[in-house]
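Lab notebook, bench 4. We co-purified these components, and the gel suggests they stay together. Before we commit to crystallization screens, I want a quick structural picture of the whole thing.
Request: model the full complex, all chains together.
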Amino acid sequence: MLARIIRHEWQMLKADAVLWVIVAIVGSAIAYGVWNGTRWVHFQEGAIEAARSEERVRFDRLTAQLEKVAAGERVSPFADPRSPSNLGSRLAAKVAVLPPAPLGALTVGQSDLLPSYVRVSTESREAVLASTEVESPLRLLTGRFDLAFVVVYLVPLLVLALAYSMVSGEKEQGTLSMVLAQPVSLGTLVAAKVVVRAAALLVIIVGLGLGTLLMTGVSLADAATRERLLWWVASVAAYMGLWFAIALVGVSLGRGSAATATLLAGLWLLLVVIVPSALTLGVQQLYPVPSRVALVQATRVASDEANAQGARLLAAYYEDHPELATGDAEQAMTDFNVVRLAVNDDIEKRVRPVVAQFDEQLSSQQALVERFRVLSPALVVYEALSDLSGSGQQRHRHFVSQVSGFHDEWRRFFTQKVVAKTPVADLSSLPTFTYSEEPSSALRARMMATLATLLVPAVLLGGLAFIRLRRYAIAG
Amino acid sequence: MIGTIARKELTELSRDGRFRLLAAVILVLAVASTAAGWLQFTAVSRQHAEAQRETREQWLGQQEKNPHSAAHYGVYAFKPASHLSIVDTGLDPYLGVAVWLEAHRQSEMKFRPAQDRTAIQRFGELNGAEVLLVLVPLFILLVTFPVFAGEREQGTLRQLMSLGVAPRLLVAGKALGTLAAVALVIVPVSALAAVAMAWASADSYLAADVSRTVALGATCLVYFLVVTGVGLAVSAWAPSSRVALVTLLGFWFATSLVAPRIATDVAGSLHPTPNAAEFQRALDADLSDPEEARQRLARLQAETLTKYNVTSLDALPVAFSGLSLQSGEDHGNEVFDRHFGRLHDQFSNQARVYQWAGLASPLLAARSLSMALAGTDFEQHRHFAKAAEAYRRDIQRTLNDDIARNQRAGQPYLAGTELWSRVPDFTYDAPSIGWVLGRQATALTVLAGWLTLAGALALLATRRLSATLG
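Here is the predicted assembly.
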């Protein structure tokens, strides 16, 4: 029976202009979104390549200078390519890159705001991480038209457009009572309608989405990429499922088509627009992150004080780092570079509590967002889509923690050489950075949580709707 | 007649539970966002004013040192928050707040507040302007869609038309009724926002801010009229209230969510900007070209010797180091003007495309105006950045002149508080409303065009109104 109704519904849907309007809208939106995302990935790759080529040119020049110096040429101490202090702070600074993930084109996410490459030197961690990409502020504010935008904003509207008059439309046309005069329950009829609509929409979105993605040249050779794509399809399907459940609840209330449409549009507005921005506002009020101006000033005050105490700090520095105090510590005391190390170390010690305040407030905000995310399915799915594209906060945090580790290693390497006054002769001995991707088990766990967050309310709401449908007033 | 129609609309709306709910939601959001904007503004203004005072104290409190060391020590300039940022934070979260003014280099403004926020901010910030320009119009559309279409379905349209009311009056009355409903929500909030602003800035609520506030209010009103006109036209034209609703929701979605994204994409493609690494490389290449530096110094040396009519640098009555430092600054300034000028021109051009895109979506024209009047658009950011850079150049010139005058060859030269205090404190005056509106001519014209179009459409649709279908 169900199969026959589904076939019939499909015939009806095919004949309805609405479906083809939706196909046209979704088709062009998806194509534009994927194309736009791909362009952004190309821009990122170009920027990374430019940063790397700058590094290459610098290192070539450095090698040439090292050869000249080895051949006996004299250089000013400020430009000496052997000096570990010069190399570590400027000349040999290395670019640490977060490459765009294979599915980067699907969601721009935070990748236009958070830098995908930084120049690591012996400067403070904050200075190293403070770099930003040149990007139009207007575009940052507006957000991008990527596939995630289509999924998060447009797909629920299409679900609602397909579903809102499923029952009331037939009732208004007068066909509902005739259909239900056959041996079929309203529940079965509605289930068939939902199955047809959901299947059609899912096929359109996934088919067109994957199709355009493959046309942009994404390789599926990698098993991890294929897994991410599967999660992507699952998340989109679950999100759609939840919206169908919401639409069903609206339908089951038994109002007229226009009233149902208004109600559902209001719910869409609430869940997709109002809750996310109200939550942003709320977390900022509860855990306000101070203006970075405070950090600027704290750093300034700390460096004034540290500089004023230069030599005394050095003694304290050796107390903290006895492993560095080699035989000629006496002479090192007078060394400008070593004093600078001590001063920088002291500045960072003083500034650390201020920096910690930023990190703390931000992670409190994040924790709160994670707790209240369930209030808006849009937030849940956006987070998941960014995660799958590697353009969310998760991957960036992973990158930052690796950069921090590399920065520590870089500093240790050069600090030892500065204190021991060992010149660097071989550039290939410098530490190098390679980003290592997060293990897929972590991603799997997050995706399971996402699906649960979307599917549990979907099942509950759907169940509620079907119970209510039993008491649906078919006539009158 | 207009009054009667308007009263009828308003009475009907106020009895509608959905209307009351929607109005309450908007009211709550408007109050919450204004309160948050106010808190944000007071916090930022306090922090920035304090930091500006501290950076000045640090500058004046420097020990005796060579002026060039002081130039490297530098000062910071912090962008003050504008009063109307309480209502529209605009681009502020995505633009830097502080700039270091030191020797040899123009720096970009650093620290975008957006980088210290969670990812969900990308769903949009809930501020007064967002409520006014995105949510209120949706409210208007939800109120207007059944105005004619609904009456037709109820059968009351036939009676109404049989009264022989002129279409002109009918449209005006219906529009007035809708706007009165909107006013019920907006007016208390606006009054609250005005009080908040006056309170937040008891000492400095300048005439300029009053005129900006009034202009912002007028912009919103015009935009509401446009939306009302479109809503009425569609309601009169649509065969059923369901079609009217879907069409208007589509209009809202396309103009409020899709158009801004496409507009910024188009703007970015028409006026592309380089990536940070490329920009830096090009800047550095022009800035520290050793051959250029050698030639420039040789030229400066020759010119100086001729000017003072001496044969060796030692015989000069001024210190050549001061002159060469300043010549380096002059060269740098030229390079900075070229590179930053080009980059910022691109951003300005993008903002202009955004104004033109108002032709496709009136929201873009309204938002462009709103950000500009709130002082949170790119042009005013640039205005501040320019003022800070001019101040940096003043500092460098003062210090380098001092070196030229007082440094003696072979002797260390230390300057003190007297020189530091000769550098004036940094003050910044925001541009006038005329300056702002002059740069928004396109948006103003486009919005006026939309007003005419929406009015004409509403009138036309009402003229051709029929009580029954088919």
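Residues 1-279+379-476 of chain A form one domain. Worth comparing against the SEC data before the next meeting. Chain A touches chain B through 77 residues (CB under 8 Å).
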